[in-house]
């Protein structure tokens, strides 16, 4: 038996990892939601990097980051809610939605990394450790437990 | 039936794969600009170039493997194939939403509605939604 299939309390370890990765993504959605409500304070806190009041390049990055925040609220966050509910209820839709959500969790920080490594290396590093790596581990954890969901 | 959908999906994806390969391998070439932002057009600024470059690499590292491995699974009628297809579709829709808010004001006026709502932007949304819907129907054991 794979260590990821080992039961720890309510779920196997692999599913716990996926749940933790999802919760980590929810932290990102919270930061994005807060940013949309008050962009300037979000920049002051460090949730975002660029203001709409800076030079042309800064405004362009801010505009792009705003688009990402909206996409997170419209698409990624609802999918994450479905995934979390499904996983907690041990349903197969949670497995499918979880893999989809965690794919976004791997994908977008990589886009960000290739875009901003030169200008924001600290933010990129945080994003990789906070979202890409946990999401990747979550995908592996879910996949190792795919048969677990066939029972439900 | 799955094979027919697979052929359609791969045919429609070929344009995106070619464009992103071109961008990753020859980022500064005129051909990359012609494909990604329109014939004879130039990057608006470094921001624009770096956004396109980031998307190209992330697509090749995440989206393309999901599509390629998922397609093998779909050909074998394996559940994991549909799950991977759905994940690639979700990523496609996600980035399309980002581009709608961050790029539309530049791209739409220069290429017009027909090009914009078909191969420049629309395809990625239609393909993403279609593949997610199809994969979910198959996962729910609903023949389609």
Task: Show the helix and strand layout.
The complex is a heterodimer of chains A (152) and B (144).
Chain A: E1 7-8, E2 11-12, H1 13-37, H2 39-45, H3 56-88, H4 92-116, H5 121-144, H6 146-150
Antiparallel strand pairs in A: 1-2
Helix pairs in contact in A: 1-2, 1-3, 1-4, 1-5, 3-4, 4-5
Chain B: H1 2-25, H2 30-37, H3 46-75, H4 79-120, H5 122-139
Protein described:
- The complex is a heterodimer of chains A (152) and B (144).
- By secondary structure, chain A is mostly helical.
- Chain A has one domain (27-150).
- Chain A is built from six helices and two strands.
- Chain A has helices at residues 13-37, 39-45, 56-88, 92-116, 121-144, 146-150, and strands spanning 7-8, 11-12.
- Chain A has a two-stranded antiparallel sheet.
- In chain A, a hairpin with a 2-residue loop joins strand 1 (7-8) and strand 2.
- The two termini of chain A are 21 Å apart.
- Chain B has one domain (2-139).
- The longest helix of chain B has 42 residues, at 79-120.
- Chain A: Keywords: Membrane, Transmembrane, Transmembrane helix.
Structural category of chain B is mainly alpha
Would you identify the regions of chain B where 5 or more consecutive residues have pLDDT less than 50? none
The average pLDDT value of chain B, as a whole number, equals 83
The number of E-state strands of chain B comes to 0
Uncertain regions spanning at least 5 consecutive residues of chain A: none
Largest binding interface between chains: A-B, 35 and 40 residues
Rg calculated over all Cα atoms of chain B: 16 Å
User: What portion of the residues of chain B fall into strands of 2 or more residues?
Assistant: under 5%
What are the secondary-structure elements of chain B, in order, as H or E?
HHHHH
**Integer count of domains of chain B:** 1
End-to-end C-alpha gap of chain B: 8 Å
Number of strands of chain A: 2
Taking the alpha carbons of the first and last residues of chain A, their distance comes to: 21 Å
| Strands ordered across the widest β-sheet of chain A | 1-2
Transmembrane segments (chain A): 12-31, 66-88, 95-118, 124-144
Keywords (chain A): Membrane, Transmembrane, Transmembrane helix
